[in-house]
């Protein structure tokens, strides 16, 4: 798994208990995963179809740097499924794991699912 992006936990990212708000990290996961899928499929006409199990394991606090690790789990005819691991940059402790995040490529005119022409094997050697 490659860790491709980082964010600094700011005061406006916190919940009432003073730790990173779960809704904020879910927003970041969706955005980071979408960017990853867009780069892999060479298209920005994607939608989030599904986010599977999300497991929160440890808190992040103000001032922590969190990083996002992403990996392609599977590739369908019109979709790509990724896993996103969010961890503390310094301690490497897992903050959150989001599994089975599915993005679907849409035709820009009809907004219907359309084949992307990629396979999982195409990503085996790919690097950013």
Automatic annotation (TrEMBL):
Any Pfam family from its record, for instance, is 4HBT
Any idea which UniProt keywords this protein has?
Answer: Hydrolase
Q: Which InterPro entries match?
A: Cytosol_ACT (IPR040170), HOTDOG_ACOT (IPR033120), HotDog_dom_sf (IPR029069), Thioestr_dom (IPR006683)
Cross-referenced SUPFAM superfamilies? Thioesterase/thiol ester dehydrase-isomerase
What region holds the HotDog ACOT-type domain? 1-109
The source's domain of life comes to: Bacteria
Positions in coiled-coil regions: none
Family per similarity comment = Belongs to the acyl coenzyme A hydrolase family.
Q: Which PANTHER family match?
A: ACYL COENZYME A THIOESTER HYDROLASE (PTHR11049), HOTDOG ACOT-TYPE DOMAIN-CONTAINING PROTEIN (PTHR11049:SF31)
Q: Supply the name of the protein.
A: Acyl-CoA thioesterase
Organism the protein comes from: Paraglaciecola algarum
């Amino acid at each position: 798994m490659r860790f491709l992006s980082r964010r600094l936990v700011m005061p406006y990212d916190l919940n009432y208990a003073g730790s990173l708000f779960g809704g904020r990290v879910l927003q970041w996961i969706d955005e980071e995963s979408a960017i990853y899928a867009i780069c892999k499929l060479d298209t920005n006409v994607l939608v989030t179809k599904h986010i599977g199990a999300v497991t929160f394991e440890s808190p992040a606090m103000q001032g922590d740097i969190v990083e996002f690790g992403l990996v392609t789990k599977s590739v369908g005819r019109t979709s790509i499924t990724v896993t996103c691991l969010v961890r503390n940059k310094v301690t490497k402790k897992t903050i959150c794991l989001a599994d089975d995040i599915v993005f679907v490529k849409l035709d820009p005119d009809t907004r219907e699912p359309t084949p992307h022409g990629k396979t999982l094997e195409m990503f085996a050697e790919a690097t950013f």
